């Protein structure tokens, strides 16, 4: 579903955020993206969503090469839940936010409302439909932001630090939700417990390079690896 080969990404001024990263993620797999601050996690997610320019190497999403002319197709397969829900929610009500993406996809108003209603119900946020996103708790905002993305039924879900602003209870509820979501998931997180409870695989980035990719429970019990990568 995601095939990354020798990927390097540089920001301006020769700042190399990803160096020679190769990994393959199969359909339906959930992968935790681990790494210290600045390791390159967000850059990798943004690159998969077509938001960062590839300096060298290649990325294939669902069999389509990630390049400018294929961006529309790639973006229809990808749903990106940003770290900060406020970057995703901008309408007067939660329902309008969920409907927005569906209308952009070409669904008529009635069908968009129908899908939005079903999606909000599946996330237990129907009671928030007419609330202003700006007045929700962080946990509620996160669910609303996820609803906006899930409504569009992407094949691949990208989450950047989904639990970073949540308390223990909201984190646990969100983990349950993340586990229940179907599809391929890539979750960048600093929280090793979240990684262990939600993901079957893990990828460890250190200083822009992929240093380990494999079974999550094996990686999470490798204290030496975690320590060397500043994760412990
Ligand atoms: N827009 C940008 N312009 C220039 N350099 C950037 C930009 N965004 C990130 N970087 C640099 O790229 C490197 C990787 O950053 P990235 O945000 O991908 O790391 P991260 O693993 O997500 O970190 P964190 O855990 O702190 O969110 C860092 O050195 C960072 O300073």
UniProtKB/TrEMBL annotation:
<dbReference type="InterPro" id="IPR003593">
    <property type="entry name" value="AAA+_ATPase"/>
</dbReference>
<dbReference type="InterPro" id="IPR027417">
    <property type="entry name" value="P-loop_NTPase"/>
</dbReference>
<dbReference type="InterPro" id="IPR050095">
    <property type="entry name" value="ECF_ABC_transporter_ATP-bd"/>
</dbReference>
<keyword id="KW-0813">Transport</keyword>
<keyword id="KW-0067">ATP-binding</keyword>
<keyword id="KW-0547">Nucleotide-binding</keyword>
<dbReference type="InterPro" id="IPR015856">
    <property type="entry name" value="ABC_transpr_CbiO/EcfA_su"/>
</dbReference>
<protein>
    <submittedName>
        <fullName>Energy-coupling factor ABC transporter ATP-binding protein</fullName>
    </submittedName>
</protein>
<dbReference type="GO" id="GO:0005524">
    <property type="term" value="F:ATP binding"/>
</dbReference>
<comment type="similarity">
    <text>Belongs to the ABC transporter superfamily.</text>
</comment>
<feature type="domain" description="ABC transporter">
    <location>
        <begin position="2"/>
        <end position="232"/>
    </location>
</feature>
<dbReference type="InterPro" id="IPR003439">
    <property type="entry name" value="ABC_transporter-like_ATP-bd"/>
</dbReference>
<dbReference type="Pfam" id="PF00005">
    <property type="entry name" value="ABC_tran"/>
</dbReference>
């Amino acid at each position: 579903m995601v095939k990354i080969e020798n990927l390097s990404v540089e920001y301006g001024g020769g700042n190399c955020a990803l160096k020679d990263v190769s990994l393959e993620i199969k359909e339906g797999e959930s992968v935790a993206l681990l790494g210290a601050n600045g390791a390159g996690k967000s850059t990798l997610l943004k690159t998969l969503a077509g938001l960062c320019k590839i300096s060298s190497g290649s990325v294939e999403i669902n069999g389509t090469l990630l390049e400018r002319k294929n961006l529309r197709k790639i973006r229809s397969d990808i749903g990106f839940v940003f770290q900060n829900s406020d970057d995703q929610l901008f309408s007067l009500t939660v329902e309008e936010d969920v409907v927005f993406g569906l209308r952009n996809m070409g669904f008529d108003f009635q069908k968009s409302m129908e899908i939005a209603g079903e999606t909000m119900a599946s996330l237990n946020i129907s009671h928030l439909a007419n609330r202003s996103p700006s007045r929700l708790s962080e946990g509620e905002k996160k669910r609303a932001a996820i609803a906006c993305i899930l409504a569009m039924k992407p094949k691949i879900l990208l989450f950047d630090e989904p639990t970073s602003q949540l308390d223990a209870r909201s984190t646990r509820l969100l983990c349950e939700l993340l586990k229940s979501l179907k599809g391929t998931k890539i979750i960048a997180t600093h929280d090793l417990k979240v990684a262990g409870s939600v993901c079957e695989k893990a990828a460890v980035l250190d200083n822009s390079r992929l240093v380990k990719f494999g079974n999550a429970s094996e990686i999470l019990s490798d204290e030496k690896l975690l320590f060397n990568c500043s994760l412990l």
